[in-house]
Amino acid sequence: MGFDKMFAEIGGQPVIRHSIAAFENTRAVNDIIVVARDERLCDVHSLIKDAGFIKVKKVVKGGDTRRDSVACALNHVEDDCSFISVHDGARPWITPGQIERVLNCAASNGAAASAHPLTDTLKRANKDLRVEENVSREGMWGMETPQIFRAEILKQAFAKVLTENLQVSDEVSAVQLLGIPVHLVQNDTMNPKVTFPADLQFPPPTH
Predict the structure, then answer these.
(1) What are 129-145's pLDDT values in tens digits?
(2) Collapsed DSSP state (helix, strand, coil) of residue 95
């Protein structure tokens, strides 16, 4: 992006504010922990105060990688927490309804994640961007967040990746290392991760 996308504005509000609002407005969510870069901690505290968010219990400093940032947050989860949801702050279009659906699936199966089926034709290319082969899209899904797990499952998975110093791209990958199946919940609404400046032109979320 070339700038801090979390504080870039969509509809006059920072991206991260929209993301927090979705969880603030989800009835089943009790506590929210926000992970932020060290230099943004004060800004996040101010944003939370100005927005009047009451479910945000802690704002903690993140790590160098997604894995390390999630591990930092897990250290602040209360012992009586039953389910843990991990969400990308850069996905401001998530809805309370989808959060609830993923949580219900996790409650039934232990581990669940929001996702969408891939519909584009897929090609594998080399480093010169020359197409080398076709990739079947049958059974292919694009992973999203939230990714929600029984608390003991996610804690066990992260204990493993930290002890063995394994890098994982998301929490589903960590849980898969335990051999625990993760169920997908199809999201029928837009939930992209803000990646390019043009993404900020999408219609603002409504929470």
Answers:
(1) 999 999 999 999 999 99
(2) coil
